[in-house]
Structure formats: structure tokens, C-alpha cells
Specification:
Elements: E1 4-11, E2 15-16, H1 26-41, H2 45-48, E3 51-55, H3 67-74, E4 83-86, H4 92-105, E5 111-119, H5 156-166, H6 171-190, E6 201-205, E7 208-212, H7 224-228, E8 251-261, H8 262-268, E9 274-283, H9 293-303, E10 313-316, H10 321-331, H11 344-347, H12 354-369, E11 373-380, E12 384-392
Parallel strand pairs: 3-4, 3-5, 10-11
Antiparallel strand pairs: 1-8, 1-9, 2-8, 5-8, 6-7, 9-12, 11-12
Helix pairs in contact: 1-3, 4-12, 5-10, 6-10, 9-10
Length: about 400
């Protein structure tokens, strides 16, 4: 079995909903990280890349027609590079990288590009759900037979609220995590830690040519007092903890990684930034829905004879602050080694792209702290979890 390496990782800035990327077609957005990887690593995509694997959670409308195939075509890689779109909901971008690593480790490929895209302005959240307004309120979106096996269907927001109840997380607890995320992003951005990961996007906005260079969603000046004034989203006041300030931001963005075998790295003169060690997926209770990172982390570490103390940096998707609080409580991981440059509460969560973006952060963080191992994990709708272990090389 050959090793799979992360050669490079790049993402677009994440544009706030209705922001600077609102006039950018999702296919053009998806092509931007591909072009960056090609430019930075000196290869011809049409001649070198064997396949493109792209996550997308709303593969309809402008994100339909297999955006994994269209992204390399829009990038100018010609007709010979195939592409596939996958949907493991919020874990899609991370799953794309894991699938790529698996193919390379199995000897079925040598050079793959894996990542994802989500344009949440032009293809809104829930666009692929049945119902007049694409919401559970109009139609559950599942077969009646589903309820022969499961008693109820909850939203992710309700799942986050139930997690807060189960782990006794107060609104203040969740807001503290949110404030840390914002401040950490601000400190990392000011220190230039995102400069290499985030590639500027030249696009058109309202007919004018612009360049978006940095994430638009973060509010590094956020404090607990400001968050305390925000209304709850999923429950009545006094009966919940989740509000817009301690949940992931709705944004537009794309991310991609270049994944290759050791033979390909030698052939093309690439110096990889990380080795993809192992990955794991789990299924969990679909009503609380978002507890998957806990067993995904624990089982991945156990499979590799490791504990949380062996991990120098964690990236845990900040879908909701309560998910982070529960994960920290159950795994015993150190918050000071987790999401150290801020997370999705700050920079946002473009569903199909986030997993590749978070994985792409880890090698840079390991370099910065002279660490060896990093672990990325995400919660997923309908009760799943995904985790990936990488090693600094």
C-alpha cells in the first residue's frame, strides 16, 4: 500500500451571504482553488490530474449537472479530466479528500484533486429539500417508512439544542466558544496565517471588477455582551441557547487539495505538506444528529493506538457551539489545541467546501507549532460523523 500525501491546499475567501461573491457563478467559484493549485505547484491540470472529487450539499440549480466535472472544465483543464460530485452533507469536502486518499493508498491513482464548493447565496440552504419553501415545515423530505424505524425528524438546530441540554451547556458556555472563535480568527488573520491558504478571487460585482482577498463573515471585535443581545433561532427565549452568533456562518466559498502518491511527488518535484494517515466515519442518533465527531474522533484514535494527548492540533467544525462543547467534554481534548485560528462561527461554513478547508488548515498549524499530528472532524446531518488524521512531514 502506498502513502497518500497532501501536496497543497487552497481555498477562496469565504464571502458573506449576499456579499462580494453574490454575482459569481458557483462553477466559476469551484474552479478558483483548482487554478490556484495548478499555478502554485507548476503542473498542467489537463495532463496531470486523474480525477476531481468535489463535495456539494446543494447539487441543484447552478450547482447541479455534476459540478465536480464542470469545475475542471471551467478551469480550462479540457475534456480529459473527469470529475464527480458527492454529498455527505456537511462532511462532503472532507469525504472528498478521504476518498482521494483511499484511491491513492490502494494504488488506483497517483494525482487527484479533492475539495468542495457551496454558494449559499445563489443556491440557498435547503434548496434540495422537498416542499414549497424547501423546509421541513412544508414537507419532511423523507419517506413515511422512515417513521417506522425512527420516531421523529428533527432539524440540526434542534439537535444542537438537545446537545446543549444533554451536556449541560449554558448560553454563556456557548457564547464563550463563539467569542474565542472570532478573536482567534482575528489574531490569525492579523498574523498572516491565512495568507497562504486563502487565494484572492477576481470577480464581477454589480458590473464592476473586484478582488476579494479575505473572509467577509468574521467579526473579530465580537464580545459576550453583543452575543447576549441576539435572539434565539430554534426555540423560544429562555428555552434554548443557539442564536446566529454561536452558530456557523452562511457563506459562499470553495476549497481544494492536491492529493498525490509518493511516486508522483518525486516525479513532479512536489514537497508535500502532510501525510494522510487514516480516516473514519460513523453513524449516530439522528435526532440529536450532531454528536458524530465524538465517536469518530475516539474510534479513529483507537484504530491508530493514539489518545487525544498525541494530537497537536484539532479542527472541529463549529456548526454550533454546543457541538464543540460536547466534543470537548467527552473526548477530554484541550481547547487550547482546538480551532486555534478560529472556526466556522467566525469564517463561516460553506457546506460542501468546509471539510477540505479545515483539513487544509491543519498542515499550516502543525508547521506553526512544530507539531506532528493533526485531526479534523465534523458533524453531519441525519446523524453521522467524519474524522481524518494527518501527520506533518
Amino acid at each position: 500500500m502506498q502513502e497518500a500525501y497532501l501536496v497543497d491546499a487552497a481555498r477562496t475567501p469565504f464571502g458573506k451571504r449576499g456579499g462580494s461573491l453574490r454575482d459569481t457563478h458557483p462553477q466559476d467559484l469551484a474552479a478558483e482553488p483548482l487554478l490556484a493549485l495548478e499555478r502554485r505547484n507548476g503542473f498542467d491540470g489537463g495532463e496531470t490530474v486523474e480525477d476531481v472529487i468535489y463535495g456539494c450539499v446543494g447539487p441543484v440549480g447552478e450547482q447541479g449537472l455534476n459540478i465536480g466535472r464542470l469545475a475542471p472544465m471551467v478551469a480550462g483543464w479540457g475534456e480529459d479530466v473527469p470529475g464527480v460530485q458527492l454529498n455527505r452533507m456537511c462532511g462532503s469536502g472532507q469525504q472528498a479528500v478521504n476518498f482521494a486518499a483511499g484511491q491513492i493508498r490502494g494504488g488506483m491513482a497517483d494525482v487527484l484533486v479533492a475539495g468542495g464548493v457551496e454558494h449559499m447565496t445563489r443556491v440557498p440552504l435547503g434548496s434540495d429539500t422537498p416542499g414549497e419553501e424547501n423546509s421541513y415545515a412544508d414537507d419532511t423530505g423523507v419517506s413515511e417508512t422512515y417513521f417506522e424505524h425512527f420516531e421523529e425528524l428533527t432539524t440540526q438546530g434542534e439537535g444542537a439544542e438537545r446537545i446543549a441540554e444533554q451536556w449541560n451547556l449554558s448560553r454563556d458556555d456557548c457564547d464563550e466558544i463563539a467569542v474565542d472563535s472570532q478573536h482567534r480568527w482575528g489574531e490569525a488573520d492579523a498574523a498572516g496565517h491565512y495568507d497562504e491558504q486563502v487565494v484572492p478571487v477576481e470577480t464581477t460585482l454589480d458590473g464592476d471588477e473586484i478582488v476579494l482577498e479575505r473572509d467577509e463573515h468574521p467579526r473579530p471585535e465580537t464580545d459576550a455582551e453583543t452575543l447576549g443581545d441576539l435572539p434565539l433561532v430554534f426555540r423560544e427565549e429562555g428555552d434554548g441557547v443557539i442564536h446566529p452568533g454561536n452558530a456557523s456562518g452562511i457563506v459562499d466559498g470553495a476549497a481544494a487539495t492536491l492529493v498525490a502518491s509518493s511516486e508522483a511527488c518525486e516525479r513532479y518535484g512536489w514537497d508535500p505538506i502532510a501525510r494522510i494517515v487514516d480516516s473514519h466515519v460513523v453513524g449516530v442518533d439522528p435526532t440529536t444528529m450532531l454528536t458524530g465527531p465524538i465517536p469518530a474522533t475516539e474510534e479513529l484514535l483507537a484504530d491508530n493506538g493514539m489518545t487525544v494527548e498525541d494530537i497537536d492540533r484539532f479542527e472541529v467544525n463549529e456548526a454550533f457551539a454546543s457541538v464543540i462543547g460536547a466534543w470537548l467534554a467527552e473526548t477530554g481534548a484541550d481547547w487550547e489545541r482546538t480551532n486555534v485560528w478560529g472556526g466556522a462561527i467566525a469564517h463561516g461554513h460553506p457546506l460542501g467546501a468546509t471539510g477540505a478547508a479545515l483539513l487544509g488548515k491543519l498542515p499550516y498549524q502543525l508547521d506553526a507549532c512544530d507539531g506532528q499530528y493533526g485531526l479534523c472532524t465534523m458533524c453531519i446531518g441525519f446523524g453521522q460523523g467524519i474524522a481524518t488524521l494527518v501527520e506533518n512531514v
